[in-house]
Amino acid sequence: MSDTDSDSEEVRTDGTGIVPPDDETPSWQERKARHEGLSRLTYEYFERARREDQDLRQQSSYVERDVLAFPTWPHEMIRNLALVSFFVGMIIFLSAALPPHIGPPADSSSTPAIILPDWYLYWSFGLLKLGPLNPDISLLGGQKLMADRTYGVLANVVIVGFVAIVPFLNKGAARRPVEQPFWGAVGVSGIVFAFTIAVLSVKNLIQMDSHLLFDLTFLLPIVSAFLSYAVLRSMREGYMFNLNRRYYRLRPPK
Amino acid sequence: MPLDEDKYPGESGRRRFIAGVVGSAALASVGAGGAAALNTATSVGGGGGGPTQYVAIENTDGPAPRGMPVVPVEVTSGGELRGVFPEATTEELGGQQITVAEMDMGGTTYSSAWFQYCGIEQYEGAQPDADADDMLRSASGPGYAWQSDLEGGEVLTVDMFEDYETWGNGIGRDGLGKPASARWRSEAEGAKTIPVQVIRSPEIPKMINGEQGFRDYSNLPGGVRNFIDAATDQGFMAWLNKCTHFCCVPSFKQLEGSTNFGGADGVYCQCHQSVYDPFSPVKKQFIARPRPTE
Fold it and tell me: What global pTM score does this model have?
């Protein structure tokens, strides 16, 4: 035996002999998980399936290649049957437990005193009531370019378009609002606007002057945007200060 | 070597011929089917619509595009209220037989096309040649307290409105008129109900004379005043009670909420807060929808 062999047998204390675990090496959590209860059962089940696959591959004359999935029968089918029976059971349970809700047919010759869409559509219903924002164009002799109802429908397109564009303007890399106060403020004003426009849609039920309510619908989101920007901005300074303090406590400047 | 050299089956004159026949047949059938589908989707939707001049109670606020059409009223010799519907005549126009219901009402052409919007053009009572009951009958489930002791379908009579000069229900100003919810030309079996709002108001004679009343009626154009003179009787006035916006049924002095939207002395629609002013009749034009034809 040469020197090099005896060198490799030796335990080295400088850390160079430690080989980092590769992908195949189970983590300690995985090793522990395989020895108890359901996780052990699951492991055995999958291991057995894997083993069967391996045996089949070895017996087969087919060109060896990676197995991308489990067989449909029984593996996939058993899982699917479990899911299907759960949802069928839920449907049967709900249809048995919920009271039937089918009213008489609508009477087109009378309208109820309070008539509103479902609550989650209030924001869109409120956008239909933006008539006062529809500009009169002086070139048309004070006439409106489009009817108020067309205007309300187009307002929906604008809002949905804006919501769709936001992810392209900001990827959402910030983990917390203080990291990007501007976008935090945009989000807050959006939430406040969703609320105020919903309140505007039920303006006939709100005991408030409807013109004041209309103005508040658009002022409150702006005010809340400025407020939250100021608050987040000042919070960010404190936040950065804390981070810096921790950093310098760990690594004091020389 | 071309890429499809090893293609199976190989290209041949016979195969090309068959591909051409099958391909052209497929194209032809797509074309014919598409034309048939287009024809069905855009088929002519009946007759009797188009641009129509009418007299409306003015839309003063809210998203509604125009006012609601006035229904001419007359009081019969028995003191009952009757809504006037024009007599149907069959005319020959461009070689086609067309049924129109038109008449002259105070210098304005009053036609059944006034009511052809919001699906009412499909109602039996709105057909020009319908043999319908013209009496104004109390609506079933009316919104006015005074009407609740009337049976649904009872004919409205003048003596029900005797207190019209002082009537009030706490909404808006008292004495502007006494309202009633009515239905009209809807008594036939299976016919859909045409909602009509009736008021008897001391303002109507002032409107006809162009005097100063609740509003300054001297500004009303002469043609409109002549129409109102012909279309009202003993202070009774009526209009088709279908909001021109989204076809809800609004009401005159019925809902508390109307006060917030300036509709306490007018007609207020609870759906989108449109307001109409019955004391401001105006001439309007709209595109009447065509009636379904068999």
Answer: 0.69
